[in-house]
Specification:
By secondary structure, the protein is an alpha/beta fold. It has 2 domains: about 130 residues, Response regulator (Rossmann fold); about 60 residues, Orthogonal Bundle (Arc Repressor Mutant, subunit A). It is built from 10 helices and 6 strands. It has a 6-stranded parallel β-sheet with strand order 2-1-3-4-5-6, with helices on both faces. The longest helix has 15 residues. It is globular and about 50 Å long.
């Protein structure tokens, strides 16, 4: 992440909640510009007008006019470089799995501690994904149940790809992967993107979930 500030948009239909999150983010020294929107449609209008796009969007799911699911799909289509963290009270396993499959980078419950929000924002920028321990355990439990009935998908990784995949699942950054293999950061980025493309995932978060689901790596 270096010294670069992280620009954020908070999207939630409850004004009091938005203002509370903005006040919290203002206390983080790594946060740059903060914008807000009250629903998905307002968010998309804001993004279309912005000269500099945000790095991260904190996105509620239940909103009028355009909900978070539809907004997330539009963001992935129009602005694939923006990281999206779902910020919600929805903790249904199937819903979370669906949203990960749709390409969200993180999932944070609204009752999370401020420290966890700080961690989540940093992790999605540095690693491409963040899920809390509770969410991770929930996802793993669900995936392990599914493995009993689903055919295991094996993309036939080579040795280097498996090594990189394991490091990604261990939350190594591009810089750390580059240092591990004594290659450039750009080469490390290429490794990550090649893996995403190879398994047909939408982003690094989806890649990690697939890796855990099909047990491609042992953590």
């Amino acid at each position: 992440m270096g010294n670069n500030k992280i620009n954020i948009v908070i999207t939630d239909d409850h004004k009091l909640f938005r203002k509370g999150i903005i006040a919290l983010l203002d206390d983080f020294d790594f946060i740059g510009e903060i914008n807000e929107a009250s629903n998905g449609e307002e968010l998309m209008e804001l993004l279309a007008e912005m000269k500099t796009l945000p790095d991260v969007i904190l996105l509620d799911l239940r909103m009028p006019v355009m909900d978070g699911v539809e907004a997330q799909q539009k963001i992935r289509s129009l602005y694939p470089g923006i990281k999206v963290i779902i910020l919600t009270m929805e903790d249904d396993e199937q819903y979370i799995l669906f949203l990960i499959g749709e390409g969200v980078n993180g999932y944070l419950l609204k009752n999370a501690d401020p420290d966890e929000m700080e961690t989540a924002i940093k992790k999605v920028v540095e690693n491409g994904f963040y899920f809390s321990d509770d969410i991770s355990m929930m996802v793993l439990k669900n995936l392990n149940k599914k493995d009993k009935i689903e055919t295991i998908f094996n993309p036939d990784f080579n040795e280097r790809e498996l090594q990189v995949l394991e490091l990604i699942c261990r939350e190594y950054t591009n810089a750390e992967i580059a240092e591990t293999f004594d290659v450039s950061v750009r080469t490390a980025e290429g490794y990550r993107q090649k893996l995403v493309d190879k398994v047909g995932a939408k982003n690094i978060a989806g890649l990690v979930v697939l890796a855990l689901k099909h047990k491609w790596v042992a953590l």
